């Protein structure tokens, strides 16, 4: 879940280019019969035409290519017919704003081509064409070198960018001992913690296991492409440690990722508008792929009806497939002996728990979950010979049983929320047809919009209070930072993790009330300033981890340099009046109650950013990760804070008073 959220925030901030279709060749000239479209090179053999239009009224029209060996620079009868997007050599019919891929006949590559035309052979008429640019180089998979070898025995052969979303990593070695290592991508000159997890070769987002020379393929999640990132690394998120990485060159000329690749040999039928089943069979096995717009914790169950004459739940043999947020894609062989919860082997039970025990017949499980779309692929034998499995016959139509519902905390299928309507059947052995439209989740808003939190400027005051408060539900810490949250966050001047803008050379004072009880770690949140966007410095145990981040010390109230400061605990607490789902922070904050410890004093942390302070640093908790957020360090305040000087003058009095009451000396 966190990964998705991070993806959402990350994607919305990298300014996504319009999705990459391939290398642009040009637009079709509109000469006749409403021919139009934009032509791209997919790779050395394939062309893609988006927005393709043709009224279908030409008597004898084909896709037609001219080779460089052809003397004429523009379309003429010397061209060569190529098959349509379905591989059919027949006369073209009508297209309406279609997105199609044409594959050149064997023996030809795009580099030999001078033009593509929609050409009427009978009348030697050009309905529309595009001329290829001179010295056109079609996209192809590109070698980007091997992983640098920093830690944990990470090494690989040269990595290939197969297409805009896919990496081929050969001869991968890694000792598997990192506590939370992931494939990790992001922007900037080198790997850092502001990256994003990439699922492993099985589509799983669990921590990486050991590799002993395997060759694997991994794919960027969501809409992310290689053009949006600068590096691919293996990264330990618990320690912000880079085990090794490879930089992604700019201006890669690689094929676009084509989602339905590999599906071309699959059948597909929509079961509902939001639930599709795709399959392919060989003599002994069937591979099924279930794709659904379902809740993240829901399962998709699909299989054969309990009856040969209609859809029936009792006696049905189904596979229950879901995406487990901890362990990744799952698919389990079930048998339904009764319409009840599994109890003593009776009811909706996994085969292995059935009263007539069967075995787990489902294998090769893979899948992913993105933008509210869950996709699980698995394989089973056509005929297992077991009582708990029905044989899948290829020579006839078979009645189906399917359902969608929640997965229980014990990882069992709970009672469905949607199921087969009426009787549905499929012939698994039919000639291959892919009848599914692309499933897009229009309802997904990529996580909830973060609360808008007013930025605080040092121009409006030089003093900041630091307290603890709730991290907020979907719109709070997680949505603002794209990071995981521990349930609490730092509140500065009673705002949840506001961004601060501070000016170099000015003195600022943080009055720390975030907890000083080091006997109770949950109430001990020393305040510090660092270039580490995660914080929690005391959790870094090795010199390498500590050297990877910087602390910007402050001064305590007697002007001694200190790395961090503690102060009594003042915590904003959720009450029965808190609107957890509030759309604004103000609305949420209204329902909180402040509770301050009677023990301890306010900690004072003076801080003066200087010319060596980077433009972005973070206020953080020294002992816990993911509590604080950004400080923008500037040479001059942005010029929008008219009248701020009087405010500033006012605050010195308040500070003076405050420090007086607290028994501190004024400075
Ligand atoms: C059929 O598919 C299964 C599962 O993918 C595979 O193990 C088996 O070798 C295949 N059989 C043939 C004859 O291709
Ligand atoms: C933060 O709060 C302090 C104390 O309430 C106040 O003096 C100061 O002006 C505030 N800072 C800003 C930037 O608003
Ligand atoms: C900031 O504080 C230091 C140390 O107390 C002092 O020497 C300096 O003059 C102060 N600077 C400003 C701009 O107030
Ligand atoms: C400030 O820090 C110094 C050095 O750690 C320490 O000796 C001093 O007592 C601290 N002052 C206060 C008021 O805590
Ligand atoms: C305050 O400190 C005293 C003495 O250390 C302790 O007995 C008491 O429990 C503390 N009170 C709170 C609310 O932490």
UniProtKB/TrEMBL annotation:
The keyword Signal applies. Pfam families: At5g54830, DM13, DOMON. The keyword Membrane applies. Residues 1-19 form the signal peptide. PANTHER family: SKELETOR-RELATED, THROMBOMODULIN. It comes from the Eukaryota. Keywords: Membrane, Repeat, Signal, Transmembrane, Transmembrane helix. The chain crosses the membrane at residues 649-666. SMART domains: DM13, DoH. Residues 273-405 form the DOMON domain. It comes from Lingula anatina. Residues 22-133, 145-249 form the DM13 domain. This is Protein Skeletor, isoforms B/C.
